[in-house]
Design goal:
about 50% helix, about 80 residues
Length: about 80
């Protein structure tokens, strides 16, 4: 496996990763975090660092938080 493949996670696997979250909610979270998946052929991928951020947001929401509160806490509200 090349190093380029190690740091890519398929966007189409995020729904299952987060307990069957609907597709629109996955894309809303990506948008909230200003994550723009990279297309490779017919598939879209996010990096390992972006996946970690998505995981942290998911955990935060599972504990009753909101995406807005998570962004504020992480200092992600600035326009990028």
């Amino acid at each position: 496996m090349s190093s380029g493949e190690i740091d890519r996670f398929p966007v189409n696997q995020l729904q299952a990763r987060y307990g069957g979250l609907v597709r629109s909610a996955v894309y809303k979270r990506l948008e909230e975090l200003n994550i723009k998946p990279q297309r490779v052929g017919r598939n879209s991928f996010i990096t390992g660092a972006e996946l970690q951020l998505m995981d942290e947001l998911h955990e935060f929401i599972q504990r009753g938080g909101s995406a807005a509160a998570f962004k504020e806490m992480r200092g992600l509200n600035q326009d990028q």
